[in-house]
Amino acid sequence: MKKPVPMESASRRIDERIRELADWRGRMLAKVRRIVHEADPEIVEEWKWMGTPVWSHAGIVCTGETYKDHVKMTFAKGARLKDPSHLFNASLEGNVRRAIDIHEGGEVDEAALKDLIRGAVMLNLMGKGDSKRTGAGRKRAG
């Protein structure tokens, strides 16, 4: 079993990824990262799956993947989030995740994205509380 990358190291690796890209994708990943931290100052940066920036708070909130022609933000529980601004434009067929593909020249609705991030954090926090109430310690009837 691999050990998780320490937070300081994960943040440094994300910094390196942004510098390595040295094009619009690096700038967009930096912008997305800033928005994530503004939405939730308690967010934790992680580096998983052989090179994917991950932002977590009581569980995974979203990832920041970079591809040749787009930057993708995948929300771990996106299918359960309200998206009145219709930011989700990828992975719409799944039952759990939803994603936002941002292409070169694309704009990001910062206020709507912050709302999605805050909603994802709340889902994670609610899930942590639910597991305590439904786990050990409950008496069975009968």
Report what the structure shows:
The structure is a single chain. With 142 residues, the protein is α+β, with helices and mostly antiparallel strands. It has a single domain (7-127), classed as Aspartate Aminotransferase, domain 1 (Alpha-Beta Complex). 39% of the residues lie in helices and 20% in strands. The protein has helices at 7-21, 24-39, 110-134; strands at 44-48, 52-56, 60-66, 70-75, 98-103. The chain has a five-stranded antiparallel β-sheet with strand order 1-2-3-4-5. The protein is globular. It starts with 6 loop residues before the first helix and ends in an 8-residue tail after the last helix.
Task: Offer a concise description of the structure.
The protein is of the alpha+beta class and 142 residues long. It has helices at 7-21, 24-39, 110-134; strands at 44-48, 52-56, 60-66, 70-75, 98-103.
Proportion of beta-strand residues: 15-25%
- Widest sheet, order of strands: 1-2-3-4-5
Count every helix, treating DSSP H or I runs of 4 or more residues as helices.
Answer: 3
**Please, what is the average pLDDT?**
88
CATH fold annotation:
Aspartate Aminotransferase, domain 1
The CATH C-level name is: Alpha Beta
Biggest sheet features = 5 strands, antiparallel
End-to-end CA span: 41 Å
**Helix and strand composition category:** alpha+beta
How many domain modules?
1
Radius of gyration: 17 Å
Number of DSSP-assigned strands: 5
